[in-house]
Amino acid sequence: MDFTVRPMKTSDIPDVFAIDKASATLYWPERSYHFEVEKNDASRPFVAVGSDGEILGFIVFWLIIDEAHLANFAVSEPARCRGIGRALLMQGLKTCYSGGARISFLEVRAGNAPALHLYESCGYHTESIRKQYYQDNHEDALLMNLDPEDYEKLMKEETI
Predict the structure, then answer these.
(1) Residues 33, 97, 119, 124: which is the catalytic one?
(2) Of 17, 61, 147, 152, which sees the most CB atoms within 10 A?
(3) Which residues form the domain of 15?
């Protein structure tokens, strides 16, 4: 599948919101994406765009001093398992690394096997568990870290 990854624009928000709403029970309100794109200096939001202009997925990182926090991330159902998620993750990590990040954090549902596989393949490891964290079904959240050594290694090895 042909796609490119670029910074998210205000005009992308309706499609991004639709992907989030279709992908997550606890999705962000649409106004949150406006804040990320228009007002949050720490935000590093990206979209994957198909050759036809369709938004296929998105990722939002927050760069806070030397930390890259993965805040939100989804790929549309028909576009999954095609390398889009990895490309978005790598673009966010590379952008944050260029901005000074040397460690990355995220939280993920314990039962989200595809996401866990992607994160682990990039060097993230589970640091701790928040029991019954998610309000919709009381699923545990795994807190995952990409430590400085693994972040550095990933940046040297990975190309987009």
Answers:
(1) 119
(2) 61
(3) 3-157
